[in-house]
Each structure stands twice: as C-alpha cells, then as structure tokens.
Design a protein that fits this description.
This protein has one domain: Rossmann fold (3-Layer(aba) Sandwich). 39% of the residues lie in helices and 26% in strands. It contains eight helices and eight strands, in the order ααβαβαβαβαβααβββ. The protein has an eight-stranded mixed beta sheet with strand order 3-2-1-4-5-8-6-7. The longest helix is centred in the N-terminal third of the chain and has 18 residues.
Length: 227
C-alpha cells in the first residue's frame, strides 16, 4: 500500500511544483545540517528510503559516495534516470530492504540517512537497528520524522494535506508518528548515541521553511555509533 502510493507519483518526484515541492524546499536545509555534523565529502553514505533521489543526489554532488536504497521500483528508476542525466557518477541505487543490506554490508558506511521514512514503515525499531548496523564504528546516522501530538496532527495532516494541499491526502497516518523520546530510546537500544536534534518549521504565508529548536512537528535527529 505505502510503496504503491509513492510509485504512482514517481514521474513527479523531480518537478519542484508537484506534490514533492516540500521535499525540494527542505532538501538544502537538511543537506547542510547533515554536512555540518558529518562532513560528508569523500565519505561513504547510504540513503535509506531514498525515493526519487532528491537527498541522495544532492549528497553525491557534495562529494559523498552514495548508495540510495528503496523498495519502490518506480521512484528508483526515476532516481537512476535523473542521476544519469545529471552526470552524477558517485551515486548508485538498489532495490533492497534496509535489513537485508545491513546483513550483507554491516559496518560499511560512514553516514546513514533515513529521512521521512520511519512514519511510513510497520516496524520503525527494525529500521533503526538496521541503520545502526550499516554504520561504521564512530559513524553518523540521521533520521527525520514527525512528532506525535495534537499540534503535529493539526500541522502535518490537517494543514499540509487538507488545507494547504502541500502533500497528497492520506500521505501520513497519525498513529505512525514518533515522539522524540521514542526515537531516541530506539536509537540507544540499537547502540546509537543521540547527539543533536533540530526542528523544521514552515510559514504558509511566506511558503518558507527553516531549521529551529522547535521539534513539536517535523524534526531531525543526529546520532553516532559507538567507536
């Protein structure tokens, strides 16, 4: 169900005025934040749940050696085509589950990113464990997701999907949202040390996103695997 929902929209991934406009708008913010923490140039990076490749390609263009993985076939084909057209050499894509890749390539990556994915999977703890397994000792793991509280319901579902039409209706299920305390607990259980957290805010009047200390709706977490 979740995979089919995103595959239908694959051809629109790289249209900055499509349903994926928010991803294009927030990408520079999260790319810079990831780079500030982990200095990705020359690093081996895996982007888990890469979709159409917006973040993966931008990290590759910044000098990282990137593997993007997803289980949705159509967005992966879109990502591959776009990377080929853009001439990005240090970027590959694979259709593989994160747990399977973690079993195949444990402790192989300097940086693991898993953005906007945990709120769409049936077992977030399993994904977090696999991301931790993929990271080298001392490696960085980044997650982004949505908090679970009344404000997040109002902003991320009612506002974004029904009032502002920023996202297709039905993109998110409130019950799948994750509180920061839940995410950090799962990270610690997986052997990760949560080090930094950033909120992502949006002003519908100016249509502008920015990073802040407010993690009440959208937020990112940076964690590090024990060396």
């Amino acid at each position: 169900m979740e995979l089919a929902k995103f595959s239908e929209l694959a051809h629109r991934w790289w249209d900055p005025d499509s349903e994926f406009r928010p991803l294009h708008q927030i990408n520079p913010l999260r790319l810079d934040w990831i780079d500030q923490q982990a200095q990705i140039t020359g690093k081996k990076v895996v982007d888990v749940g890469c979709g159409g490749g917006i973040l993966a390609e931008s990290m590759a263009k910044r000098g990282a050696n990137v593997l993007g993985i997803d289980l949705a076939d159509k967005p992966l084909k879109v990502a591959q085509l776009h990377a080929w057209e853009a001439g990005v050499a240090n970027l590959q894509y694979r259709a593989v589950a994160v747990e399977a890749l973690a079993a195949e390539q444990p402790a192989q990556y300097d940086v693991v990113t898993c953005m906007e994915m945990l709120e769409h999977v049936p077992d977030p703890a399993s994904v977090i464990r696999a991301c931790a397994q993929l990271a080298k000792p001392g490696g960085w793991v980044f997650f982004s997701t949505i908090n679970r509280n009344p404000k997040a319901f109002l902003f991320a579902i009612v506002g974004a999907e029904y009032v502002l039409n920023l996202l297709p209706r039905g993109t998110h299920e409130y019950a799948r949202f994750l509180r920061p305390a839940e995410l950090t607990a799962w990270c610690r259980d997986a052997g990760l040390d949560p080090l930094a957290m950033k909120g992502l805010e949006y002003n519908p009047l100016t249509q502008r996103y920015w990073l802040s200390g407010d993690t009440s709706v959208n937020y990112m977490l940076a964690a590090r695997k024990a060396a």
